[in-house]
TrEMBL record, chain A:
Xref: CDD domains: TM_PBP2
Major site of localization recorded for this protein: membrane
Segments crossing the lipid bilayer: 21-47, 89-112, 124-147, 153-172, 200-222, 257-278
Protein name (database record): Sugar ABC transporter permease
TrEMBL record, chain B:
Organism: Actinomadura rubrobrunea
Keywords, sorted A to Z: Cell membrane, Membrane, Transmembrane, Transmembrane helix, Transport
Transmembrane annotation, as ranges: 44-70, 101-123, 135-160, 240-261, 296-320
InterPro entries in the record: ABC_transporter_permease, MetI-like, MetI-like_sf
Membrane topology label: Multi-pass membrane protein
Localization of this protein: Cell membrane
Name of the gene: cebF
Family listed: Belongs to the binding-protein-dependent transport system permease family.
GO cellular component terms given for this protein: plasma membrane
Protein name, entry field: Sugar ABC transporter permease
PANTHER family: ABC TRANSPORTER PERMEASE PROTEIN, INNER MEMBRANE ABC TRANSPORTER PERMEASE PROTEIN YCJO
Amino acid sequence: MTAVLSRPSGTHRRPGRLRGLWDASPLTYITLIAALVLSVFPIYWMIIVATRSNEVVGSVPPPMTPGGNLGDNVGRLFDNPDAYFAKGLVNSAIVSSAVTVSTVFFASLAGFAFAKLRFRGKNALLLVIIATMMIPVQMGIIPLYMIMVRLGWQNTLQAVIVPFLVTGFGVFMMRQYADQAVPDELIEAARVDGCTTFGIYWRVVLPALRPAAGVLGLFTFMQTWNEFMWPLAVLNPENPTVQLSINNLANAYFKDYTLMFAGTTLAILPLLIVFILFGRQIIGGIMEGAIKA
Amino acid sequence: MSVELRPATPGRNRTGPKRTAPRGASGRGWRVRLARLDMRVSPYLFISPFYVIFLIFGAFPLVFTIWVSLHDWELASGLRDFIGLGNYRELLGDEAFWRSVVNTIGIFFLSTVPQLLLALWVANLLNRRLRASTFYRIGIVAPMVTSTAAVAIVFGQLFARDYGMVNWLLGQIGVDPIDWQASRGWSWVAISAMVDWRWTGYNALIYLAAMQAIPKDLYEAAAIDGASRLRQFWQITVPMLRPTIIFTVIISTIGGLQLFTEPVLFGSGRMDGGPVHQYQTVTMYMFDNAFRSDHYGYGAAIAWMLFLMIIVFSLLNFLFVRRAGGGR
């Protein structure tokens, strides 16, 4: 009871039984820690298996500490003739980077236009963008494939890049942010100084949009890195993204778990690094409703 | 709309002469005209990339799917026969299709209902005054930043019949090993577990953000009136979260009915969803028909049926949540 008094004031304006209203009980912590363990365990387990030899499969109880076989497993992974793992990693890096840079650029450009420029038909055009966000676009995958056949783009990286150069969601998100983050006076001042509209975007708006552009970039990268169905449809197993590489491994008749888990570990490594570096921004992005599943 | 354009232009003219005064009148006119063109055209240039990309790679394919679905359409042989609604007629009597519909809906319920309830619960806990709250938040969204394919492979091993950790844990409490692959119901449970694991934390954070916007006074007033925490949760938190819950339900419906990666990798990359198609989803069935069997017309018909299914389910869920949350 005395401890309560030393807490920062403001949260407790009223005396008596209301003190405990927002306090966490030990049970709260226990439940949250259980949730945390459940969330992290499969990732941890994946790394454990990736560092061990195939004897772990079936050992009782299952091992919970890393072994020394990671280098060996990764070596076998890159030597595996069915996985094309190195190629998958490179392809994924190219595709994800290209899509991310382009999405951030085009989405912020369009978001700026919708938030700050005056033009005829603006509201209707914005409404179209919002409507497209609700459409499950991958339902059009069959004609999309036919377009790629017509263009001669099957099994090329542009087939998995070009359709995703900019998303309606990105445009809408950048519009929302530009609307409140960029003062109109700043734009007027730049115009008076003789800036072109693109100059205003490049020198005034883009720097102001950096936080939101960063979050959009993070999520675009993760989403593109993760893409599975469309690359599976349009790319050959010999020219995979990294997700297809691990699918190649899973397809094998004999399940070499340490090999597969080394593959999945490497496949999510860039995502884990991004997450460790920018975890807070990602949390912030989700909580502000910036991210769509 | 054109009226809006005007106030900006005189402003431009007012400042124009001042800056360009030393130059000749013709040079000034040229610059003003260019500036005016810039103001008029730039907005459209800036927004056009989205519409171009969306028209070619988003809208057109979606609409063209209807056209394809009215054909016997194969790419390898070049066959393209107009058969009207033939594909749809066949689909209505196609047992494999309806089985995939049941599978999809079953997995959808098993993955969405516990996921959103758990997320509500976790969010409610995170909304307390906590030490190291960021730590928990980061921990519970960690699953979201893994790759779906990787997770599916790991869960496939955790749910293996022999030597799988889940069966080993169940064995500790005296439950016989379960063949997660072979049984229809258990395979749904295993696949749903992957979906739940991945998205619960994400939804919890969305709920948490909405919970933080609820005025604290409401709870204090309720507490003064003697309402228990549980009662506060159901009578204040849940009704106040209704718009957010509707949002997450719609998003989960759109995503859940298109479920593909998890069941594909649960079945080691195969499209058949197990020997008796026990976990083949509609999207897998579509993919299998189009890209594996070269029946693009039939696949397109499946895609449209799925599209309709998504619309119907989103509406039903929307109405259900609105009704259920509305009882005050």
